[in-house]
Amino acid sequence: xxxxxxxxxxxxxxxxxxxxxxxxxxxxxxxxxxxxxxxxxxxxxxxxxxxxxxxxxxxxxxxxxxxxxxxxxxxxxxxxxxxxxxxxxxxxxxxxxxxxxxxxxxxxxx
Length: 110
Fold this sequence. Notes:
β4 (70-73) and β5 (78-82) form a beta hairpin. It contains three helices and six strands; from the N terminus they run βαββαβββα. Helices cover 26% and strands 31% of the residues. The N and C termini lie far apart (66 Å). The mean pLDDT is 86. The chain has a six-stranded mixed sheet with strand order 2-6-5-4-1-3. It has one domain (9-109). The chain is of the alpha+beta class.
């Protein structure tokens, strides 16, 4: 029996250039980072067994990750590249303003 091993792939999200300075000087926060999707430009994918392997593979290819960039796993998990390495991240959930307004109106009517 032949075993087939599929290499995980990561989608690259690049922090928009005008936000890099701001990110660079922001204090380091521990815990899961909450990020706005509009601050990132989706890019190519890279196949690698881990985020760190992807980092070195991209560095060797001449397209290195920069501090603030994200790797998104096939399952949707996000890892943000910081000075200390990769840390967990998540997208900021944007609430639909129409639904929120409807909820407030419902409460006001009762």
